[in-house]
Amino acid sequence: MKEKRQKPTIIGVSTRPTEHLKRVWENPVVWRPLCCVLVLTVIITYLSELVNAGMWADLSLPIPVVYVVTLIGLILGIVINAAIYRFIVFLAKGDASFQQLFSAVLFITPITIIGTIISHLAVILFHVPKDITVTSLNALIQVSGPWHVVLANFDLFVIWNLVLTGFLLIQVGRISPRISWMMIGVFYVLSFIFQYVGTTINMSVSWG
């Protein structure tokens, strides 16, 4: 009798990544996590519409089209992420198919979306300034200039997502832990550098 494979869950991947990402490698389901991600994206898009009502009012596209474009963009982003991880796995001599990596990315994506939903709800319900991310250090440390944006990257959900990405490369990509965590560290440092430089350039242009 064929043994029934256990299915991974989004909550399981978020709280017990070693166990559940191993299940993703063994049973790379797509439709269930994809539906969850799409629903969460609709929610976050609606909350964004409430938080940025002025900007949405100036949009030239009909609101339903914005939702459709957002969902298509999300799916494309996940496909690109999976393709990048597939390339990394190839270079690191790992062992994972595109479907396995695509499934894994779908399972870890909700963490980032939930973090943004919490920030939007804080703006709507508690009137927190829109440039404050309540789950990050810029909610605790008040600084101006580029460092305000950089501190937003010290975010609980951003770090959580990075940790899950490390486990993804290990459990699904079959890359050595040392290489995986080194790559995650490099990605994190580079994100700080790009954010700092990008914000500095934008501020210089606007002030100029």
Care to describe what's here?
It contains 9 helices and no strands. The chain is mainly alpha-helical and 208 residues long. It is globular and about 50 Å long. The mean pLDDT is 89.
Q: Characteristics of this structure?
A:
208 residues, 9 helices, mainly alpha
Outline:
With 208 residues, the protein is mainly alpha-helical.
SSE order and pairing:
Layout: H1 10-15, H2 17-26, H3 31-51, H4 53-57, H5 63-91, H6 98-126, H7 146-151, H8 156-172, H9 177-207
Kindly state the number of beta strands: 0
Content of β-strand: under 5%
Number of helices: 9
Rg result: 19 Å
Assembly status: single chain
Largest sheet: none
Mean pLDDT, as a whole number?
A: 89
Shape: globular
- Tell me the distance between the termini: 72 Å
Order of helices and strands: HHHHHHHHH
Quickly give the structural class: mainly alpha
Ranges where pLDDT stays below 50 over 5 or more residues in a row are none
How helical, in percent, are the residues? over 70%
